[in-house]
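Exercise 3.2. Students should predict the tertiary structure of the chain below and write it as structure tokens, then compare their answer with the key that follows.

Predict this chain's 3D structure.
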Amino acid sequence: MINLLIMGKPGAGKGTQAKKILDYFNLTHISTGDIYREEIRKNTKIGQEAKKYLDQGNLVPDKMTNDIVWEVLKHKKYPNGFMLDGYPRTITQAKALDEMLAMLNIKLTAVINVDVDDDIISDRMSGRRVCSNCGHTYHLEYHPPQILGICDICGHKLIQRPDDLKESVLNRLHIYKEKTQPLLDYYDNKNLLLVIDGENASEEVFQDILDKLGGL
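Answer key:
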């Protein structure tokens, strides 16, 4: 069993690598972003509350996110292990996760950090577009749709998410440096951190991840 945590600044290509890792090891994906987006789509009370924070590029309060992760972890529906994606984002959340895992007698295998320069991230995110119906992601330069503004898969309109707008991106990077980056030191001190150069080609990044995991 392999239990991973994947980190990286917003727009670092973390999602692409997460999918490759999930498929390769057949892991269960625990993404707080996906959970919140589903709650927002359903217009639940949690979704409405989370939307207020996410639309401004802010983090959802720790307790709300801790509770959502605990609900998933405690059922232990991850036969081959799991990958946490988008959580923890603060030291407070990391300590809460430590407590959850201790209660469940589970250990983290590694924490993967996909590292990319801020300027590259700003360019990547400003060109990102998402299908308003199925959620498939495109990029105007790196992965454009066949028809501009239209999803290849379901034919619905592509939109730019509020958290991909430049002002929101800059705010998210500021929050990352202020609150999330200390997590790198936290997990480095636990000898769990694997730093991956995310500026290389996607397949090279993935191979680097496999090589470093294989060396554990």
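Discussion points: The mean pLDDT is 91. The CA atoms of residues 3 and 109 lie 5 Å apart.
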